[in-house]
Design brief:
Elements lengths: L7 H4 L5 E9 L5 E16 L6 E7 L22 E9 L5 E16 L5 E7 L1 H6 L6 E2 L5 H12 L19 E2 L3 H10 L3 E5 L5 E5 L9 E4 L6 E7 L8 E6 L8 E6 L17 E6 L5 H16 L4 E6 L10 E6 L2 E13 L6 E7 L8
Parallel strand pairs: 11-17, 13-15
Antiparallel strand pairs: 1-2, 1-4, 2-3, 2-18, 3-6, 4-5, 5-6, 7-8, 9-10, 12-16, 13-14, 16-19, 17-18, 18-19
Helix pairs in contact: 3-4
Length: 367
């Protein structure tokens, strides 16, 4: 969750005005346009994607042709434009409090039948994925986090990095043919984590665990509540209570094979209990140590068993929320602490914020 001022949370519970605008730069941070007004738009953030954040927006209210890029030098030209999207609230005194919800390149400019220009943007992870290796790449003998930052900086020299929240380890012996994104996936997977960018454009490496933490926001229905509506599902699809990680060794000896099971007595997905025995096998091309394979197996197991309850909720927009945050959701008498997988941030219009979440559950006991 992003930090906010003392008034921000309170105004969400009553009538309030939204504020949103776009600043435009080039990749080196040179200003091309500030405070571009918005007619409409949204930002989607999904932790399951390499390119975590995408944005679409229409400038306005302006002359329909004011922001249409006629040359490579125009502010919103896909050849140069890097946009930063801010959204929040406008207080009664005219002041605004806004938060960065997107940073990335303009990838597409189009005009609809009404003549309004619309822009589609991808976050800076798209630059990293696009910078494929021109020659096979051998991992350096450093730490995994140092290797991750090196690979990202080669693709985006202007990259900034936020605080990583995983324990580092030595870089495995790896060679990649051409896919830089796959190289980063392999490295971060060895730490039981994922790499992605935040709304301010900073690159992070964070674990993909669904272990519970204190909810950063309560979104419930009723008078003054922030919950508008919700759909809740409980499904066996993609649920596993045993995860087997198999990692090949470079020296030809037997591969590392680690099994992690949900053995928590009170767990609804306890291995061998009423749920049954459902095994997920993950074959990793990255050669892992036994400890690294155990970490991956545990975090994958936490994610697999976290699918027991999922919410799709429409809420009053709170632009301080981010994917990975734990929230308390409540609708029609049902409450649950959930971890946010995806968010759709609306810009300006009366559309709600949509959350896709999974259960926050205690980490299972392993064997």
């Amino acid at each position: 969750m992003l930090p906010s001022g003392p008034s921000y949370k309170s105004v969400l519970h009553g009538p309030h005005h939204r504020a949103a605008f776009v600043d435009v730069y080039d990749i080196d941070g040179n200003v091309r346009a500030l405070g571009v007004p918005l007619h409409d738009g949204s930002v989607q953030a999904n932790l399951t994607n390499r390119v975590t954040r995408t944005a679409t927006f229409t400038p306005g209210p302006v002359n329909l042709n004011d922001w249409w890029p006629r040359s490579v030098d125009d502010p919103l030209s896909p050849y140069r434009a890097v946009v930063r999207v801010f959204a929040g609230t406008r207080y009664g005194n005219g002041e605004t409090e806004v938060f960065p919800v997107f940073t990335g390149r303009v990838y597409d400019a189009s005009r609809g039948t009404d003549g309004r220009p619309q822009f589609r943007c991808d976050d800076l992870a798209a630059d990293v994925v696009a910078a494929r290796f021109e020659q096979p790449r051998v991992a350096r003998r450093t730490t995994i986090l140092a290797e991750v930052r090196q690979l990202i900086s080669e693709a985006v020299p202007q990259a900034v990095f936020g605080p990583d929240t995983v324990q580092d380890a030595a870089t495995p012996v790896l060679t990649w043919d051409e896919d830089r994104g796959q190289a980063l996936d392999d490295l971060t997977e060895a730490l039981g984590s994922r790499w992605y960018t935040q709304g301010d454009g900073a690159f992070l490496v964070r674990p993909f665990t669904y272990a519970p933490s204190a909810p950063v926001q309560t979104l419930i229905d009723g008078p003054g509540g922030l919950m508008l509506d919700a759909q809740v599902s409980i499904t066996r699809d993609a649920v596993a209570n045993s995860v087997v990680v198999v990692s090949e060794r470079m020296d030809g000896t037997d591969p590392v094979r680690i099994v992690a099971r949900d053995n928590t007595p009170s767990s609804p997905t306890r291995y061998g209990g009423p749920f049954g025995r459902v095994v997920q096998v993950i074959k990793v091309q990255t050669p892992l140590s036994t400890l690294e394979a155990q970490t991956l197996a545990r975090t994958q197991l936490a994610a697999a068993t976290a699918l027991t309850e999922q919410w799709s909720a429409d809420v009053v927009p709170d632009y301080t929320l981010e994917p990975g945050d734990t929230v308390r959701l409540g609708y029609r008498g049902l409450q649950s602490d959930q971890v946010i997988d995806s968010i759709t941030y609306p810009l300006l219009t009366g559309a709600p914020m949509r959350l896709g979440t999974r259960s926050a559950i205690p980490e299972p006991v392993q064997t």
